[in-house]
């Protein structure tokens, strides 16, 4: 198993600035592609799938992330509703998930992101649902919209912790995404990402290059087998699976070519 110990290769100020500017540029480029296609009435779901994976792969290359994957995804095309619940200790959790997993994945995002110029408009056009964290009535409407999107075939990605962990350890879970799973009878796919907190530690501007990280996919949990009274059990079972993935994972690191193939396979 490749070591997941952090590599002491902190980027200097010039490299950090370069990665930041390039990341903004790549993000803006794909936002404009989405907005332009949407304005012309030519934006299809498969276009968004391809754009999100190309954008994600570009971001991972900029920090030379050494990503490995353990476990297998269920068949997202079997007619069930799916909800990916992932640990959250880095801004790179989302692009790593997009690259490693197939399907029409969309992030359940906090509403504040939609205020960002170009990004907010592109996310709405690309079917990324929002959730208001500080308005309970709006949050319920947002979750209803998310339910409708899941029923149309979208696989939702959410972070039950709600905010990034500074040390990679699991934080307390929020209940919202578990209510959504129960409401839709969704299949929860627990995902844990080890080591990714070292790339860009939470609440810092310290950027570390060539970091090893591992995305581990746990066994699916069928929320339709739980009821409202067993919400706590569903949360505990999901947490236990994610915790186990954090503590025990192994895989073989892909080469640059294999990373390209991973993106292509996900797009099929």
UniProtKB/TrEMBL annotation:
Listed GO MF terms: 1-acylglycerol-3-phosphate O-acyltransferase activity
Q: Which Pfam family would be a valid example here? A: Acyltransferase
Q: Which SMART domains match?
A: PlsC
Q: Superkingdom, according to UniProt? A: Bacteria
Q: Where is the Phospholipid/glycerol acyltransferase domain?
A: 82-196
A GO BP annotation:
phosphatidic acid biosynthetic process
Q: Which InterPro entries match?
A: Plipid/glycerol_acylTrfase
SUPFAM superfamilies (alphabetical): Glycerol-3-phosphate (1)-acyltransferase
Q: In the UniProt record, does the keyword Oxidoreductase occur?
A: no
What keyword terms does UniProt attach to this protein? Acyltransferase, Membrane, Transferase, Transmembrane, Transmembrane helix
Q: In which pathway does it act?
A: Lipid metabolism
**Segments passing through the bilayer:** 20-40
Q: What PANTHER family does its record include? A: 1-ACYL-SN-GLYCEROL-3-PHOSPHATE ACYLTRANSFERASE
This chain belongs to the protein called 1-acyl-sn-glycerol-3-phosphate acyltransferase
**Organism of this sequence:** Ectopseudomonas guguanensis
Its lineage opens with:
Bacteria, Pseudomonadati, Pseudomonadota, Gammaproteobacteria, Pseudomonadales
């Amino acid at each position: 198993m490749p070591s997941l110990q952090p590599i002491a290769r902190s980027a200097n100020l010039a490299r950090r600035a370069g990665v930041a500017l390039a990341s903004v540029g790549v993000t803006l480029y794909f936002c404009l592609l989405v907005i332009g296609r949407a304005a012309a009435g030519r934006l299809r779901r498969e276009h968004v799938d391809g754009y999100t994976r190309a954008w994600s792969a570009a971001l991972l290359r900029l920090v030379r992330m050494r990503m490995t994957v353990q476990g297998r995804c269920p068949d997202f095309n079997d007619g069930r509703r799916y909800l990916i619940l992932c640990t959250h200790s880095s801004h790179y959790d989302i692009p790593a998930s997009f690259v490693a997993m197939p399907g029409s994945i969309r992030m359940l995002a906090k509403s504040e992101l939609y205020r960002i110029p170009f990004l907010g408009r592109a996310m709405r056009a690309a079917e990324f649902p929002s959730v208001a964290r500080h308005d309970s009535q709006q949050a319920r409407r947002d979750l209803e919209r998310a339910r409708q999107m899941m029923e149309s075939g979208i696989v939702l990605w959410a972070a039950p912790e709600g905010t990034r962990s500074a040390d990679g350890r699991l934080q307390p879970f929020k209940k919202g995404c578990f209510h959504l799973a129960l409401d839709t009878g969704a299949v929860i796919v627990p995902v844990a990402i080890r080591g990714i907190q070292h790339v860009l530690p939470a609440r810092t501007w310290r950027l570390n290059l060539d970091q090893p990280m591992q995305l581990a996919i746990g066994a699916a949990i069928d929320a339709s087998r739980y009821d409202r009274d067993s919400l706590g059990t569903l949360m505990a079972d999901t947490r236990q699976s994610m915790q186990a993935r954090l503590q025990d994972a192994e895989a073989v690191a892909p080469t640059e070519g294999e990373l390209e193939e991973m993106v292509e396979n996900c797009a099929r």
